[in-house]
Amino acid sequence: MGIVSIDEDLHDQLRRASKVSYRSINAQAAYWIRIGMLCETNPALSFSQIMQRELAAAGVAAPDAVAAPAGA
User: Fold this and answer.
1) Residue 37 is part of which domain span?
2) What digits encode the pLDDT tens for the residues 29-64?
3) 45 Cβ contact partners less than 8 Å away, ≥ 6 residues apart
4) Helix, strand, or coil here: 51?
5) How many helices and strands, by DSSP H and E, does the chain display?
6) What is the DSSP secondary structure assignment for residue 66, as one 8-state letter?
7) Pairing with 62, which of 3, 18, 51, 54 sits 20 to 30 Å away (CA)?
8) Per the domain annotation, does 71 fall within a domain?
């Protein structure tokens, strides 16, 4: 394991996002890195498609999204 040097602004964003996501700062950084790698290696897929694929691979049955009513 190594140390990664990041910009102070990005570190601040990591700290804020980690609180919202109930993750440690390191776990949030790892999540963003993993998602970034998946997006770069699967450019034809949307974020939602990547997440559905990853959840299915992990054996998680994600509920279908419900469309918002018209005019909402």
Assistant:
1) 8-58
2) 999 999 999 999 999 999 999 998 998 899 998 677
3) 39, 53
4) helix
5) 3, 0
6) P
7) 18
8) no
Task: Provide the token pair at 13.
Answer: 């964003």
**What's the token pair of residue 34?**
């993993």
Residue 18, C-beta contacts closer than 8 angstroms, at least 6 positions apart: 24, 25, 27, 28
Question: pTM of the entire structure?
Answer: 0.72
User: Greatest CA span in the chain, whole angstroms?
Assistant: 50
Interhelix angle 8-21/25-41, nearest 10 degrees: 100
Number of folded domains that form the chain: 1
Nearest Cα neighbor of 26 from 4, 50, 47 is 4
Nearest C-alpha neighbor of 32 from the set 15, 45, 44: 15
